[in-house]
Amino acid sequence: MNRRTPHLPSWLPIDPFILALVCAVALAALLPASGWAAGAASGCSTGAVALLFFLYGARLSTREALDGLRHWRLHLTVLACTFVVFPLLGLAAGRLVPFLLTPQLYHGLLFLCLVPSTIQSSIAFTSIARGNVPAAIVAGSFSSLAGIVVTPLLAAGLIGGGSVGFSADSVLKIVLQLLVPFLAGQLLRRWIGGFVQRRKKPLKIVDRGSILLVVYTAFSEGVVAGIWHQVTVVRLLELLAVEAVLLAVMLALTWQGARRLGFTRDDRIAIQFAGSKKSLAAGLPMASVLFGAQAGLAVLPLMLFHQMQLMVCAVIAKRRSRDPEARDPEQHTLLVGGSPRPAGRGKTTGATRTTRVAP
After folding, report:
1. Euclidean distance between CA atoms 190 and 192, whole angstroms
2. For burial by CB atoms within 10 Å, which of 66, 215, 249, 304 has the most?
3. How far apart are CA 231 and CA 225, in angstroms?
4. E runs forming strands in the chain
5. How many CB atoms lie within 10 A of CB 337?
6. The whole model's pTM is what?
7. Contact 43, 336 (CB under 8 A)
8. What is the per-residue pLDDT across 230-272, written as a single tens digit (0 to 9) for each?
9. In 10 A of CB 334, how many CB atoms?
10. Is it true that the peptide bond before 98 is cis, omega within 30 degrees of 0?
11. Vertex 126: Cα angle to 2 and 204 (nearest 5)
């Protein structure tokens, strides 16, 4: 008999992961990590993300990863959402100044529209929703690498306020934290791939645990910096409302737009989660260069949006996993070329094929 996963009572329609996120935020507000504890929390968060990519590298077949690289239509769609659609919506939000947003908060809102997409949470939610995980890995990585150059250039042109740039340390951090563990998992997959495939619970724990650590670490930094005392409650609520509309618009555009473009369900999931998110980890160091002493207040919109997107996407990913269309999470439909075909059919046409993750 299959064991059923315990759920909360039916009269409490709250996802357990959402409760965990709220608890992480509350813990950061009550007991923020500071001093040596902040360094330890940041180190644990970095280690969890590295472990996440190592496990994905061990689980993902090399051929499947290479097929994901060829899915250029999906990657261009994600990049267009991240660096074209988002900035246009951010510029349109300028009409809300000074009625709903102060100039400082608007600059922060515009800045969040310019930063690249997240990687770890996009992959984790795509995995939970049973979407195209290889495509999410490549799309998120492309977005982060492109953001190292594109985000400072867009910020300099749209926000101004001095010169902005990037350093080799940013590239090195991405390589060490994401690419190196993934390649290490690929190299060791021959020996540990089957072990990882048979034990999915540890991978799920790392998926969600890494998100919780990132949330706690980010909120702790904000609490210690005292940014919550630099804005009134009314302005904070107005900012939250504006960001809620922004997130809703992007979630709808990425899902419906991908449908109109003919992508499969698996690809639409990857596009929605990778194309509607913004990276706090990439945005914080860039904001410190762009805004200087005002970085604390300017990064507030990004911090709030980051938490909002995690909570909303956690609910969406959970619902997507229960869709009638959802297939075996170990199967992924990869579009190499031609017209997409719904997954789960016994035949393939054109260059579309269904592959199974090898044990």
Report:
1. 6
2. 215
3. 13
4. 331-335, 352-356
5. 11
6. 0.66
7. no
8. 678 888 899 999 999 999 999 999 999 999 999 999 999 999 9
9. 26
10. yes
11. 45
